[in-house]
């Protein structure tokens, strides 16, 4: 069994990072009660994602916690492997280690490390993780790992060396391509941004504010170009065409339709990221509003 065997929908969110740990744990417990099966927590300049996962796992009974993603440049392979094994032992079938190469501005600007040959770097890192010794009480099974894979070669590596892929800032078309590369027996858990707003101009404004964060990260833009978008779509904060493609907006039914499109394209699990008019807002009312229909 794997952590996502019965978990078709979860949440991807920065919001819990901005809450005090005790409050974040209370929200996680409520999300579990609402029926959400998983929470994916990021790594940027907030909490360490493995520590954050441990806090939320301890506050819930069944919830799966995934890192979306833990940067391989942020910790040595031995450290990453030890942290993941500790969580896998303490919370069997409830932790997913999402690994990624991150982006040059993050790696060079924050970690002060060179950003080189992402595919080779990831392969070498996985080799070192697999060889890492561990003297503590071992987990019953090795940690469940997925890669933040976008391009074909990283998806192939995810198929060969991990249990699957957790693509970010993508479309159902990408999900279909990813499934073809991963094959039928690997987890495919894409992230999907959503805005619960029926006014097109306002919804696109909200989506564009978040999309702007990724305009300086070539990995994402190159992947969108593989999906048919051009530099014109990235000008002036992003065209309506690209915003509508990566952000599902409208009422609850519109969100459900986009999530269903990913499932129909081959996703096993969809990690829904609710965007808010102000990026510092916690979308708890929206999570509550979505739950009955999205999880029904």
Total domain units: 1
What is the CA–CA distance across the termini? 23 Å
Helical segment count? 13
Structural class label: alpha/beta
Largest sheet entry: 9 strands, parallel
Residue-averaged pLDDT, rounded? 97
CATH architecture level-2 label: Alpha-Beta Barrel
The poorly predicted ranges are: none
| Share of residues in helices | 40-55%
Approximate strand percentage: 5-15%
The CATH superfamily title: Luciferase-like domain
Could you spell the SSE succession in H and E letters? EHEHEEHEHHEHEHEEHHHHEHEH
Computed CA radius of gyration, to the nearest angstrom:
18 Å
Globally, the shape reads: globular
Number of distinct beta strands: 11
Named CATH topology: TIM Barrel
- CATH first level: Alpha Beta
């Amino acid at each position: 069994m794997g952590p996502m065997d019965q978990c078709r929908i979860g949440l991807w969110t920065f919001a819990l990072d901005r809450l005090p740990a005790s409050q974040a744990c209370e929200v996680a417990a409520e999300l579990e009660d609402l029926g959400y099966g998983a929470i994916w927590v990021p790594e940027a300049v907030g909490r360490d994602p493995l520590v954050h996962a441990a806090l939320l796992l301890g506050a819930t009974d069944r919830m799966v916690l995934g890192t979306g993603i833990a940067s391989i440049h942020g910790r040595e392979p031995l450290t990453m492997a030890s942290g993941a094994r500790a969580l896998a032992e303490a919370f069997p079938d409830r932790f997913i280690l999402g690994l990624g190469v991150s982006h040059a501005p993050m790696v060079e600007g924050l970690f002060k490390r060179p950003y080189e040959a992402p595919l080779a770097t990831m392969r070498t890192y996985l080799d070192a993780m697999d060889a890492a010794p561990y003297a503590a009480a071992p987990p019953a099974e090795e940690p469940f790992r997925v890669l933040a894979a976008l391009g074909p070669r990283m998806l192939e590596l995810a198929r060969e060396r991990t249990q699957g892929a957790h693509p970010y800032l993508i479309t159902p078309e990408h999900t279909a391509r990813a499934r073809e590369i991963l094959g039928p027996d690997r987890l495919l858990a894409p992230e999907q941004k959503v805005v619960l707003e029926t006014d097109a101009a306002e919804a696109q404004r909200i989506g564009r504010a978040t999309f702007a964060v990724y305009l300086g990260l070539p990995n994402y833009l190159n992947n969108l170009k593989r999906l048919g978008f051009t530099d014109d779509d990235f000008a002036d904060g992003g065209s309506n065409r690209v915003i509508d493609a990566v952000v599902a907006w409208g009422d609850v039914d519109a969100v459900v339709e986009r999530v269903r499109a990913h499932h129909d394209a081959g996703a096993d699990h969809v990690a829904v990221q609710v965007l808010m008019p102000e990026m510092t807002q916690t979308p708890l009312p929206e999570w509550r509003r979505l739950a009955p229909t999205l999880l029904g």
